[in-house]
Amino acid sequence: MSRTLKIYVGILVLLLVGIIAIEFSTPVPINWTKTYNETHKIPYGTFVFYEELDYLFPESKVQDIKTTPYEFFDDYFSWEDSTYLTTGTYILIDDYPEMDNTSAQELLDFASFGNDIFISSNYFPDRLLDSLGFSIRNKYNLKGKAEFTLTNPRFKNDSIAVEKGMSNIYFSDIDTLYTTVLGHQKFADSTYTNFIKTSWGDGYFYIHLQPVAFTNYNLLKKSNQKYVSSVMSYLSDDTIYFDSRNKRGKELGSSPLRFIFSQPPLKWAWYLALITTLLFMIFNAKRKQRVVKVITPLKNTTVDFTKTIGNLYYETKDHNNLIEKKITYFLEYIRRVYYLDTQLLDDKFVKNLSLKSGKDNSDVKKLINQIVYLKAKTNCSEGDLLRLNNAIEDFYTT
């Protein structure tokens, strides 16, 4: 390794060390994303709430639902006696859950058999809105902090003030015949309903519009946990079916390779291919030939030499010598190309040369006569040389 390369490598290592040091010394920014994920400890995750479920429902077992509600509860439905083989309380906390009307109908069926459904969300499928007879509206001009209260006098001291993350959604219409108002939210001097209980069959739906109240950020502030505990007190102490954000379909993410990663043989084949490709690139890079210095090829000086010799003969005015060489080279060309004997330059030779070369007979005869004349002439002039040269060049090119 050359000294220059060692310097470059040293500088690169120092830069990397500096970047790593700066990266580790920089405080990790707070992630304010509203995930409502029970495994996330960020401000708007629900890790604290999920961990407290065992204390809120000490007699209950907490079971995660990692499929859609329809897929989960349909497996517990007995078609023989048209009833469910399990009982309990379904809990969903998410601002915009991916629930379709099929899953909503499954929850309606599950509640009709005496089970509780608790949903804290900002969005509800049409099947729930129509069946339970409530409507929601977004009051966009509501600003500032909000106060969440419960209507039960026993919980009058469990109100909380929320400054961040709350929505401005409230119940604009409810079915008062089957619905009980359990809580309100207050913005400035405006109070709106945000928590209701509505009966369905032998069970109940508890609809809450502020899922942010169940996040880590709000549960760990002051005594906010009292509000959540009071809300949960309405639910029966039975098996808790917690709708997890970590669905089985999401475990693989949205990667185009999710099917490959879902199959162990394909996954290991993929990793093996990547490792093999990486090794090939490493070893192939080492076997590459060094950069070859470009060497300029030697210049062909034949033409320059010929020009020099020609100028030498021309300057010495030795026209006879030049004419002799010109004639010699031309006759050698005739022998090599047309395979003709050039010892006797007669009419027969002219005829044969004209036939083989495809030249006009009169032009060939004129050239040959000129050659014969100049071979016999003892004192040739510059004009003779030029005329011979032009005649021969015409023969070559015409």
What does this structure look like?
This protein is an alpha/beta fold and 398 residues long. It has 2 domains: 47-250, 3-Layer(aba) Sandwich (Rossmann fold); 307-397, no CATH class. 44% of the residues lie in helices and 16% in strands. It contains 14 helices and 13 strands. The protein has helices at residues 3-25, 47-56, 69-74, 101-112, 126-132, 216-219, 225-232, 258-262, 264-286, 302-315, 319-338, 347-357, 361-376, 382-397; strands spanning 62-65, 77-78, 83-84, 89-93, 116-120, 135-138, 146-150, 160-162, 169-173, 179-187, 190-200, 203-208, 240-243. A hairpin with a 2-residue loop joins strand 10 (179-187) and strand 11. Helix 13 (361-376) packs antiparallel against helix 14. It starts with a helix and ends with a helix.
